[in-house]
Structure formats: C-alpha cells, structure tokens
Amino acid sequence: MKAKTSKKVLMSGNEAMAEAAIKANCFFYAGYPITPQNEIPSYMAKRMHDEGRVFIQAESEIAAINMVFGASACGVRVLTSSSSPGVSLKQEGISYMAGAELPAVIINVMRGGPGLGNIASAQSDYFQSTRGGGHGDYFTPCFAPYSPEEAARLVMLGFDLADFYRTPVLVLADAIIGQMMEAVEFPKESGFTKKLPPKTWALTGKSGRTANIVKSFFLKEGGLEVHNEHLRKKWQKIKENEQRSDTHKTNDAKYLIIAYGSEARIALEAIDILRAKKVKVGLFRPISLWPYPEKNLKTISKKIRKVFVVEQSLGQMVEDVHLSIPEKEIHFLGKTGGGIPKAHEIAKFIEKHAK
Amino acid sequence: MTSSFEVNINKDKCKGCQLCIFFCPAKHLKLSSDLNKKGVKYVAKKEASKCSGCGFCFLICPDYCIEIYESENI
Amino acid sequence: MPNKTRPASLKNISTHYCSGCGHGILHRLVAEVIDEMKLSEKTIGVAPVGCAVVAYDYWDFDVCEAAHGRALAVATGIKRCRPQNVVFTYQGDGDLVSIGLAETFHTANRGENLTCIFINNACYGMTGGQMAPTTLVGQPTATTPWGRNPKSGEGWPVKLSEILATLSGVAFAVRSTISSPREVIKTREYIKKAFSNQIENKGFSIIEVLSPCPTIWQKSPINAMKWIDEEMVKTFPLGVIKDK
C-alpha cells in the first residue's frame, strides 16, 4: 500500500521564502549575514549548489545588491535578502535597479531600529519600503506576509511581478514571520496570470542584435524627465492592478482593525476576545503595502464606525490609512523597539475607544 | 615594390591636443591656421613631407580623427 | 602593416572628453582588442561612475552601468551568470580605490574570472580635480590646494595593483601607461593578455594604466604625457607585477 504523503512541510518563514525562490527558478542569490534572516543564505547556499545555480556570500550588503544588479542585467531571476540595517545599505542599489528597470526580489526580515536597534520583531521599515527607500522618484511594489506559507507565495508572486513590470519587488516580513515554524504547502503557480514579456533588453553579448545598454543615467536635457514619466506610468499601472488585501469577519463589523504581517495574526486573537464580548470587530489586512490596498479599504470601511490601526512601530502605515479613508475616525496603537501589541492589549484599546 | 601611406584626417573630430604632431617622427603633421567645427585649430598634413606609415599619430590620437591607409606601388 | 583605422567596436562619434584625455586612447585599445579577438558578440563591459560614465555611448557592444565603486560587484553578478561571456570593468582611481575598495579587494580575492581596466590619473576628473587615493605626494588638487601632504592626514598614494597582487585570486597585475605610442602598444598587449587570461579561466586580471588628465593637471596634453614619464612613474613604477 502506498503511504499517504502530505504536501505540507514544516518550515520557518525564512526557509519557506528561500525554497519559494528555488521553486520560482531564481538563478542568482547574493547576501550578507544579518539576524534575523540568516536561515535564508544558509538555505540558499545548499539548495543553489544542488540546483547548479549561483550563490555568493558577498563582502557587504552593498556588494550583494550590486551583484544582484549585474545578474539581473543578464536576464536571470535574482534574489537578495537582509534585515533592516542591511536593507538600508542596499537602498543605493535598489534605487539604481528601479531606475534601470531591473527585476529582482528583495526580502527584508525586519528587526528593530533606528541604528543597530535590536534583533526583535519590528515593523518600522514601512516608510522606507513604501516610499522608494533610496534617492530619486520611484516606488517598489512591497508585499507583507502573515505566515510562512504566505511568505512563500508572495516570493513566487514577487518574481513574476518583477519580471512583468521590470521592477525590484520587496517582500517585507518581520522577525516573527521569518523565525516562526509552520506547515507550508507550496503552490504550483504564483497566481500571477499575465504573460511575462521576453527579456530582450538583457545583456548576453550582442550576438544577432544591436548592443544593449542597462543604465539609469540620462544626462541629456529632458532625458531623465522622459524616463521618469515612463516610470510614473508604470507605477500607476501597478497601483491600479496590484493592490492586495485580506479580510476577516468584516461582514457585520462596526469596528475595523487594520494590521499587517505578524501583527495581523495577533489581531485575529484580539477579534476572538472581542467577539466573545459581542463587540463586532473585523480585520482588514493589507498584503500589498505599496500599492496600498486603498480600493478595498474604502469599500470595506463603508459601514465601519471606527478604525483601529495596530503596528509594531510608532505609527507608519497609519498614515496610509488616513490617506485612504480620511473621513473615518482612526485610532492608533503601536509599540516599538521589540514591543509587540498583544491580543489582550488590542482588545482593551478597542473596548476603550469603541464606547 | 614600395609602399606609400595615406593619412586621413577627420578635422572636425580633432580637439587640437597636438599629441600626434609631437610624436610624429617624420614631422609630417602641423596645426592648421583656421578653426574646425569644434572651434579649435586642428591637425593637418604638411604638403612637402612624407608619411612613413609608423602609425604613431593613430596610436596616440585620443579622438579617432586619424586613419592611415597603405597602398602598394609596384 | 595593416591599415590603422577605427575599430568596429568603437562608434563613429566624437567623445565628450577633454583635449588630450587618455580615455579616448583607452576606449580605442579596448575596442581594438575585442575586435582582434573576435569578442564583440561575447563581451559585456561595465562602465563606471566618473568621466567614463557614458563609455557605453562610444563602445558598440553590451555594456552595463554600475553605481560609483560597485562595478566589480556588478561584473561578478554578470560573469557568474554568464561564464561564457567576456566581462570587464573600466574604472578610475576614485571608483576602484576609494569608494569601491571593498568591492575591488574582494572581487580580486575571490579570483573572479574577469578583467579590470584601471585608469589611474591621480585625481577626480569629473568632479573638478579633488584628491584621489592615487594623488601624488605634493600634488595640488581642489581639496589639497597646497599639495597632498601625508603629514596633514591626507595619506599616501595607494599602490592598488601591488596590493591586489598579494591575493591568491589574482592571476595578472600590471601597470602601464599611454604616455607615448610605444607605451600605447604595450598597454594594448596587456589588455589582450588579460582578456586571454579570462578565456583561459585564469582568474582576476588588473591592468592599471597611468593616464593623462591635462585639464585637472593644468598642463598641455604634451606636458601631461611628460609628467607621467617624469613624475608619476616614480610613485607608480611600470611593468608586470604578477603573472601567474
């Protein structure tokens, strides 16, 4: 008799994201050690070798992102990962990649800041991740998983989206998501259905074609304006097409919690506590942080009386909530520096303001 | 069989650095008296002298204004 | 003797470089070697930040931009994904020796199988002639107006090629110049050797070229060449440093 095998694998979020990159045919990985994402380079070192692909432990995050720049310019799928201070170092390269329209997936397993901060979970890189992050006029699509399995799915989606729009894509996990272990079932497809264009721009040697140039430099008067307007159209298209979010118990809700990543899981428990007390509360969970899922939020919040934004930060995403539903009464609960708003704290906060 | 060499000068590419004039062992090159499109005095051939085909001017020219062609006289 | 004409890998346009600048000669030498070795369809160049930032406007083969100092990291990414291609970087002293020193050192130390063409003109040309890591002792620059003085904390000229030659990953390190037709021919041969090394999987090759910057040096193009021969070579001696 054939043994029944489960498709589910017990994995940490970090390992799940790394394996997802392997499954998405990522050909090149470069990274530098930093906690709490170290399981990603360790996993990739072994698996990329097994698959005959390229793994490099770079001398710094700056070198890693620039290696990724070069590899992406050749047309292969590329990944780098880091955590908050390391991602700050990568911002130069991310800006160049946005300017040169190079696809890449960049994983940030967030830790506390500013500065060296600590290695506890945090959501304090929201501004950096959703407002470009480096110098210049640009955005990068940014997805925030709330489970190892979703992290895997979003990495796979990220590769397709990056290739389709020719842009770096961020997967913004927090330390809890990176470190927690859970059963993960990998999807066969990313769920991205648009046909990916051939990479005719890639540097492969000019055999059979004219020379290709990969660059973000437009010195001629008016040249950069034309290029940036082209980028603006791309960002607009992404804004229209790639907003993603999830909801929980919002059908009859009068009160709405908005939280992402690990904080959204904690909010689920708060909802159970409050529902037991007959407080009609639901969850709106942004999956895409940029573009912010404002269309869905507007729709969901129509019958909502009060909104409660909960973050592991001093208040970053809350600004996008204000921009999306300015007419609503919005309350913010945030903890910083490794502090995590707990379920009973969220419940207490909502009970206080719901009266 | 002897060879003769033709020096072709694209005067409008010349930036007037004079490196070719300095290094030409045959002293075949000179600076023009008029200006080219860039607004500089450009390199020109002296009429009375002969190019030996050494290629020094081609080698040292940073602006690709000099090309040398060989023709065989039988 | 073959005709001496513009190589096909060099576009038929005028460069933006100053009169007497060494970049023009070096762009041509790279293009000549690529054509001679029939590599124009296999080559991927990496252009720096500095005066040669738009080298891709002059070369007619695939070229990638790199952020300031990061060309060798970019080249590493390219070469690892496409070992069948010939990959080189073209970088100045500020790019390679100052801001990009970590990338330079570690790319060489990994023995990446690629070619680095290092243009040493002892100054930052593009930004107006500031002190470079290779500025000579006593040489006045925009940021060392009384001449570079190690005793004032301005450091000594960095001999990068000698430093890299100590690394096991480096196959070939050489310093040359383009201060005369004879030296131009030598430099061309070194570039050719470095590309051959890459085809033979020998590892990292660096060709450091002492190159004139008449504008910043405030010398005529001819006197700039003389200054290389008379002054620069005292600090930066010419010749093969390592040939493994």
Describe the structure in your own words.
The complex is a heterotrimer of chains A (355), B (74) and C (244). With 355 residues, chain A is α/β, with parallel strands linked by helices. Chain A folds into two domains: 9-197 and 215-241, Rossmann fold; 245-354, 3-Layer(aba) Sandwich (Rossmann fold), CATH 3.40.50. Chain A has twelve helices and 15 strands. The longest helix of chain A has 19 residues, at 223-241. The radius of gyration of chain A is 21 Å and the shape is globular. Chain B has one domain (2-73): Alpha-Beta Plaits, CATH 3.30.70. Chain B has helices at 19-23, 56-60; strands spanning 2-9, 29-35, 41-45, 66-73. Chain B starts with a strand and ends with a strand. The mean pLDDT of chain B is 92. Chain C is globular. The model of chain C has no long low-confidence stretch (mean pLDDT 97). The longest helix of chain C is centred in the C-terminal third of the chain and has 19 residues, at 181-199. Chain A binds chain C through residues 27-28, 30, 54, 56, 58-60, 62-64, 66-74, 76, 78, 92-93, 96, 100, 203-208, 211-217, 219, and chain C through 40-44, 46-47, 53-54, 56, 59-67, 70, 73-78, 80-82, 85, 102-103, 105-106.
Tag the structure with descriptive keywords.
heterotrimer, A: 355 residues, alpha/beta, Rossmann fold, 2 domains, 7-stranded mixed β-sheet, 5-stranded mixed β-sheet, B: 74 residues, mainly beta, Alpha-Beta Plaits, two-stranded antiparallel ribbon, 2 helices, 4 strands, 14% helix, 38% strand
Task: Give, in order, the helices and strands of chain C.
Answer: HEEHEHHEHEHEHHE
CATH topology of chain B: the name is Alpha-Beta Plaits
Low-confidence stretches of chain B: none
Question: How far is the first residue's CA from the last residue's CA of chain C?
Answer: 32 Å
- Largest beta-sheet characterization of chain C: 7 strands, mixed
Radius of gyration of chain B, in angstroms, nearest whole number: 12 Å
Q: β content of chain C, as a range?
A: 15-25%
CATH A-level architecture of chain C: 3-Layer(aba) Sandwich
Q: Regarding CATH, which class of chain B? A: Alpha Beta
Quick one: which chains have the greatest interface?
A: A-C, 40 and 34 residues
The tally of beta strands of chain C, per DSSP, is 7
Return Rg of chain C in Å: 17 Å
CATH topology of chain C: Rossmann fold
